[in-house]
Amino acid sequence: MLLDASRAKLVGSRGEQAFAFDIDGVLVRGGNPIEGLLPIFQRLNHAFSFRVPHVFLTNGGGYAEAVRAKRLGELTRSEVSEEQIIQAHTVLQELVPSYADRPVLVLGGASESKVRTVHDVMRGYGFKNFTLASEVHSWRSDVWPFHDAPEGNLSEGRTWLKRHAEQRHHHEAVSERRFGAVIVFHDSRDWGGDIQLMCDVLRSPTGQIGTLGDDTHPQAPVFFTHEDLIWTNSFPTPRFGQGAFQLAARAVYKAASGRELQATTFGKPHRATYAFAEKKLKGFAQAQGLGAEDVADVWMIGDNPASDIAGANAFGWKSALVETGVYVPGTRAAFEPTMHARSAEQAVERILAQYNLD
């Protein structure tokens, strides 16, 4: 929800700038706010005669946008709408016109105990005919006999899966489903199992799990939601992300089929995600009486040169690389930003000063 301009302090004038903030390693780390978080959004939301347009552009995910917005609103003590949240899988909404009613296999995104979260997000986007990996495991445990998790974490998820399966006559449906695409919703919690199911669908001439062709048929489409090799959390060094999973999936599929995996990847640094974000920013500007053309400079504030900075530079945005996440201060960035800054707070201060909004 946009703030009424009359509630903001009249300082400066309407500028041409807008912001896209990465979240992990820029605003939070390990779920905890990074120092300087509050002043950023006090200034963007309240210091001027207009609310500076901004979105949160992350390769993170696994939650509904409304849930992430609520959490960020609490951390920043500001109004954050779900329309401002662009997660790795948010752009999947663009696939709904083509895949809303087609059978789709959905991998990754949640442990079995939280499987309903992925289901509800996909349903909320408009997908109606999808099957989760956990549903396949509930059909036949020998589809991936190494699938396991602590029993204490599974009771809620398994109860929901059982009820959901009964409602859909699920066990009959899985064996008969002809999957038309594979979507990696978010980071896999079971690399081996998810790669197995992906290969099962792609190597079947009909897309049916449990059938195998000669690998000469057209490959079903595959969609990854991001390709970050590494990301940061509360652990001292970076952790592997969906980009590492994608490399593993490509290698296994090629070894098994003799073919290169053909796939579409969303998320940063890919153009489709930046175009989606810019459209949102221009919409926010227009809602305040600014024309879309007035948003001339979009600044990406990120910590990962290979995703945040590379994508922003390629799309024609300006970029600020901060030192609170993946990037190691003092090293040469693989993709040079428009600006280096210690933190998101310092980056925003410097950028606003360039537009005489300091």
Automatic annotation (TrEMBL):
Any one of the GO CC terms: mitochondrion
Membrane-spanning parts: none
Source organism superkingdom: Eukaryota
GO molecular function: hydrolase activity
Keywords in alphabetical order: Hydrolase
UniProt-listed GO biological process terms: glycerophospholipid biosynthetic process
InterPro entries attached to this UniProt entry: CDP-alcohol_PTase-I, HAD-like_sf, HAD-SF_hydro_IIA, HAD-SF_hydro_IIA_CECR5, HAD_sf
PANTHER family assigned to the protein according to its UniProt record, in alphabetical order: CAT EYE SYNDROME CRITICAL REGION PROTEIN 5, CDP-DIACYLGLYCEROL--GLYCEROL-3-PHOSPHATE 3-PHOSPHATIDYLTRANSFERASE-RELATED
Protein's recorded name: HAD-superfamily hydrolase
Species of origin: Ceraceosorus guamensis
